[in-house]
Write a structure and sequence with these properties.
The protein is mostly helical. It has one domain. The protein is 69% helix and 0% strand. The longest helix has 24 residues. The two termini are 31 Å apart.
Length: 169
């Protein structure tokens, strides 16, 4: 659905695209809330590789935002809506992956990486350098990310076999 609006005019329909993307990320985060547990918030899970990965993701989001901002200066509120919901979704996906509590958590990692890739390349492709090869690449990547997220939801089981119900957020 979002791709239809992107093809019809990225700048013209940016408000609708932003609302639909934010809604997608909010629903994804809402559905993932059952997989986040209070006891998983431990400082020893923050290894140097996790910190470097977080810094790189933050830099990617910052650099793409800075690149796109001059073209979408009138839509800054919607851009912030996308950024906040995207970062929330990706953070939850990476957190569940890092805690190593569920089988097939790698699917969340793949879904988050696909999401970051697509959301980074689409604005560049639509606003600065349009290339026809990016369209199928981005579509395949987006489908792969949604497929991975769906696989996780369908097959996620605790690795140790039991999760206490009252520990959910």
């Amino acid at each position: 659905m979002i791709d239809v609006f992107v093809c019809m005019g990225f700048v013209k329909y940016y408000t609708i695209i932003a609302i639909l993307l934010a809604l997608y990320y909010a629903i994804g985060t809402f559905l993932l809330r059952h997989f986040v547990h209070k006891q998983d918030f431990k400082i020893n899970k923050v290894t140097p590789s996790v910190m470097v990965g977080g810094i790189l993701v933050g830099y990617l989001v910052y650099s793409i935002s800075e690149l796109v901002l001059p073209k979408l200066i009138d839509q800054i509120g919607f851009m912030l809506l996308i950024l906040i919901s995207l970062l929330q979704f990706v953070t939850v996906c990476f957190f569940i992956y890092i805690t190593e509590r569920y089988e097939k958590a790698i699917c969340l990692f793949v879904a988050a990486c696909c999401t970051l890739f697509v959301d980074a390349i689409v604005p560049i492709n639509e606003l600065y350098y349009y290339n026809k090869m990016f369209v199928p690449l981005l579509t395949i990547t987006e489908i792969g990310g949604v497929y991975s997220l769906t696989i996780f939801f369908m097959t996620a089981k605790p690795i140790n076999g039991k999760i206490v119900e009252d520990k959910y957020f």
